[in-house]
Amino acid sequence: MLNASLQELASALADRRISSVELTRSVLDRIAAGNPRINAFVHVDADGALAAAAAADARIAAGEAGPLTGIPLAHKDVFCTEGMPTTCASKMLANFVSPYDAHVVSQLKKAGTVLVGKTNMDEFAMGSSNENSHFGAARNPWDTSRVPGGSSGGSAAAVADGLIPVATGTDTGGSVRQPASFCGVTGIKPTYGVVSRYGMIAYASSLDQGGVLARSAADCAPVLSAMAGFDPRDSTSLARPAEDFGRDLDGSIEGLKIGLPREYFGEGMDADVRAAVEAALDTYRSLGAITVDIDLPNSRLAIPAYYVIAPAEASSNLSRFDGVRYGHRAAEYADLAEMYCRSRAEGFGAEVKRRILVGTYVLSHGYYDAYYLQAQKLRRLIADDFRRAFGQCDVIAGPTAPTTAYALGAKCDDPVQMYLGDIYTVAINLAGLPALSLPAGFGQGGLPVGLQLIGNYFAEARLLNAAHRFQQATDWHLARPAGE
Amino acid sequence: MSQADWEVVIGLEIHAQLTTASKIFSGASTAFGAEPNAQASAVDIALPGVLPVLNRGAVERAIRFGLATGAAIAPKSVFARKNYFYPDLPKGYQISQYELPVVAGGEVSIRVGDGDDAYDKSVRLTRAHLEEDAGKSLHEDFHGMSGIDLNRAGTPLLEIVSEPDMRSSAEAVAYAKTLHTLVRWIDICDGNMQEGSFRCDANVSVRRRGDATFGTRREIKNLNSFRFLQQAIDYEVQWQIELLEDGGRVHQATVLFDPDSGETRMMRSKEDAHDYRYFPDPDLLPLAIGADWVDQVRASMPELPSALASRLQQSHGLSAYDAVTLTSSRELARYYLETVEAAGMALAKPCANWIMGEFSARLNKAEIDVADAPLSPAQLAGLVSRIADNTISNNIGKKVFDALWSGNGDSADAIIEAQGLKQVTDSGAIEALVDEVLAANQKSVDEFRAGKEKALNALVGQVMKASRGKANPTQVNELLRRKLTN
To answer: Quick one: fold of B427-485?
Structure first.
């Protein structure tokens, strides 16, 4: 059952071959057994999940079930969940319980999903390895000495290890796609504005976007459809009609024009990643797709632009964590300034502090023009690159990350090396485009390699279609880690 | 050197709290005086994950202000974050507007002083922008700790920034009062200064007469009455002049005015100034205001006080002073116009006199607003008409006014009738009274005949008294004069 697709689970539930309570119990058992190995969950709510499952069973019995009714699911701990801890994997919010649900959370509750718990992440979604967590790193189920990627590392690891069929994530510079790549699962980040950010604790507001991690594109589609939609509480939410992102899953990709950016296939990519990606492109060609070379000439500017804009926004977004109204407050302080300093010094981890400092610097008087404004100009150039490219192709393909999962601790001492791992993903957030990562094979040491597909604005259905057709022709996405 | 050798330069920043029912970025109520934190929503207390949504009512009020001052309404303006830490600033930043404000330019005509020395002047506006207010820190009653009340957090403000066009505290006060009238007139701010709905910051500098460049300014923060505005500026000007004449230099600073001592004192120097790290708020899209929205707002605008004042001078024959006084609030102006409507245009001037005189004095004494006046424009018009057509004298008119004020809604006519106040204009009846008085006051008669003009007044008074005020004073006067000079 735990290897079944969402569609299979839904039909088993509908046919009463299994109840949601039974399914949820098996998920809870699986988490209890598997989580100590990979530390993917930071909170599990067994009672709440079983109650939700019982309610789902009642809906199914009453014939009111939708495609997700009774399906167990986990949220990245960046989404506010009423009555359950919401920590962002930070000491700052270690004891915070949100009084309200994020839009994504309430949408998925309405769809009948069963919320089982919250997944591990890099603190405040800042990181690419899940090592920046107050609750310790999540681990890669394919090799627990390696990172699962980040920042949605807990969600990716939990799905890869079969602890949960589907989990949410957020993607600011690759935080859904890169862990999906490292853990061998499918992860999609939609067009900026498709998923409401209300209740999704902000890292970098102009880049953050909720997404889904699951085994397959077919599993991602209904969950993304349920999460998405206009929300008047988020001014950047797009007023578009509800959409079934799975509507074109089975469509033909004969003649699909896949653009291959020269800049994504140059230096810097590991040989095993290159081999898997090339093989995946061959598969696409064999399915009738056409590959064309394209240029994204400003690609090399994406990392510097991202690491100015994201910290700038973060430095301001995280100012509310001041120890005054909620969150960590230092035990002792002599005055207000010391209360702020100590509470924040104690409450935030090293990477969060680094980004707050960088962000504060680039917004400072005398530096704003040279950094922040300059980065915004680069952002426009990068978006223009994509606009031109989509004149020549339907989707863009390339590696999700230049490497497979690296060893825990390997890049902790060199943040710039860590940041360079985001080279293929951050430009997509700067442009606000949708993209997904799907399992494309394995590299050295049997570690998963992800293929990234980038779509034009609102091309989610087409991306899922292209991924689904690939997954019908391959079985990389069905491979499971061996476990202990 | 003396003060006359110095020129004072003043610019004002005025924060007008807008009259929206809910806050600028959340649905919480803006009503004043609730229990602490009873009107603070998740957005106002900046819970993790919450986002701002702009209240279009606040934007509409900004547009009204822009239209009322002849300013440009920006087709696109941008909300920016002003970052600083303070416990009553829940997000750690204030959402304001920085580089692209919603309203740019515009000007306000002011009348400075009254009487013969009064003069008109135009003050240019730099800009007006939308922003949210902070909460309040409460430093008493918490045993050494501070309390935070976030009811005010997120209340919409329009910050109105003037050019440094004012040259005296009197001009600054006249400008502030004109704006105070205007924002209430166009219904965007209740103007309640005690509750902080209208607060002034004054940028003050001095320079030697003839100097081409401005002196270094100091900013006096948070002046919440016109009197304090005047006192603070006067003190600050004197302080700066003395400092400069003693060879000192003014350093840019923010100062506070202490009403008890009447002095300004430094709050922070330029060196301590925050670096607010302004940047466009990524949670809010740029504010787009189309021409159709502006047209819609324009169509709903009332006639402005300055336009009404010149109309009153031209068509109602009022003096500039009368016109400005009667347009000092929309309610007063409306009361006046309705009174004239009922009394007839020929009585525009006496209506103005009654409203600016007896009526305003009674309002002040009772400390009530025009809207709460116990007599209607129609009742007042009835009174003015009866004086004009000589049914009663002006003095009896005051009696009737008393009755109307304490009244049961009776008309002036009903009161005159019931109390028998009708003026006696029957010359026979008056003549009889005059004869009586002349006979009984031989001394005054002699004095008048000896050339003492004042003696006539005494006789008039006696006749009026004998008639219990009802005799027509003009007739009495004429009759007496005729009889005495015969």
So the answer is: Arc Repressor Mutant, subunit A (1.10.10)
